[in-house]
Every structure is written in structure tokens, then in C-alpha cells.
Design brief:
heterodimer; A: about 220 residues; mainly alpha; three-stranded antiparallel beta sheet; 7 helices; about 60% helix; globular; disordered N terminus; disordered C terminus; B: about 70 residues; elongated
Amino acid sequence: MSWTILLQPPPPPLPLLGTTGTEILQFGLLVAAGVWFLRRSGLDPRRFVATALATVSLFYLLCPEDSQLQRRAGWAVMNGMAMLQGGLMGFGGTEVQVDGVSLVGSVRFTYGLGCMGLSYLAMGVLCVLAYPMPWGRRAIGALVMAGSMIWLNVFRLIALYHLWELGEAELYHLFHRAGGGFFAAAAAAVFCGLLAARPRVATAPVPRPAPERAPELSGARA
Amino acid sequence: MKKKWLALAEAAAAGLLAAAALGLVNRAAHFQGWGSSALCGVLGMGAAVAALLLLTRRSASEPPEAAR
């Protein structure tokens, strides 16, 4: 082994955040939406901002994209997503086989680690959980956020598969790069929808007042 | 109408500062050199504090709608 190899600086570690910067855009949009809705309700938004920032930062520090946890969870989620995408495409008339984290039809389409948008999804769920509202609504909101983002991701992946199959490489790369922005806009829209939805007000039957009897007039006749 | 635009600008500024804080704090953990990490960490914490101060100023100067 020569000294030149030993003296070379080690390669930089993988970035903690996505390289396109759209995760940052998503966080900014979610915080802005939360502040807007809290101000409209006359509530102090500082706690929401501090909690969202702390929890999302902790998530990135403890569970970055190249961590074992994200790799293991990522493989399981990718496999599930491949089966869901394959099922939907079969339902639409495109026959594909699922092979682990690949879809095999007229082309082979293999998912990458960041394809699932797990960081985007975690960010959306953590912001919903940080918003001050009853815990039941937070839990339902988190489920709606996760379900919506998974559903949108399936459609994004189906579009990418067909672009690859058609040989539209330029369009494929353009759409792939814009995917993060697509996620960010969708998460912000779902978050706004969740905050704008009013909880149903419980109603109770109100007893009707008894009709007052008309004063009897002495000597009056119909 | 003016108040609505001010509230919108405040929300946008808070979102921008929070996003900058998140990016800088995470970038601080990514750098290997102490100098760059410390600079990014300090800037990120500064952005987070600025976001909270921005919201504090308005909270103090203007009572919430529920209190009016």
C-alpha cells in the first residue's frame, strides 16, 4: 500500500438531508402553515415551532438516510410499495412482476433508498404531532398525512415507471428531480387541509318550551 | 386587509427561518472540521432563536383575537 493512498483524506460522509433541498422547503412550508393557522385561532405559535424544529432535527441526527434503521425499514417499505405499485398497475392493465424491491415488466425498475420519501413522511408526521390540538386529532392527522403521502408516492412511482418504459430519459430525470418538490407541496396541502378541517360539534336535543296558554277572556265566545 | 398580509408575511418569515435553522443545524453535524461545524451550528441556533423572537415580538405587541 503506498503512502499516497494513506494520506488521502477520507471521502465525505453522506449528507443528512436530501441533496435537492426540497426537504428544507417542505419544513418551511409546514412551519409557515402552522404559524398561519395558530395566529388565526389566536394561539401562540412559538411552542409549535420549537417542538417541530427540535423533533425533526433529532430525527435527522439520530436516523439519517444512511443509518441502519432507515436501511432496514427502507427495504421493508420498498418491498411493500413494490407490491402495492405492482397491484395497482396490474389493476390498470400493465402486467409486472415484483422481485424484492424491483418491478419487472418490459423494463426492470428498481427502487433506490430515497425513493420512499421516508424523511419527507417523518417530517410531515412530526409536524402534525407537534401542532397543539387534542391527541386524538393528532393521531388521526398523522395517519392521514402518512397515508396521503404513501398514496401520492405510488402514483409518482407509476409515472416514473412509464416514463422509463417509454424511453423518455430526459423527462424521467426531470420528473425524478422534481419529485421532492412534489412531495413538499403535497405535504403542505395535506397539512393545511387537516388544520382547516373543523372538528364536528356535538349536538344535544333541546327540549321545546311548552306552548303558553292563551289568557281566557271572561265572557268571550267564538 | 393589511393585518392579513402582515400575518402572512410573518408566517412566511417564520417558515424561512425555521427551514434555515434545520438546514444549518443538520449541516453542522455533517461537516468534519470543527470550525465549519461550529459556525453552522451557531448560525442554525441563531436562525431558530430569530424565528422564536419574531413570533414573540408580535405576541407581545398585539393581543390574540380570542382576548379582544
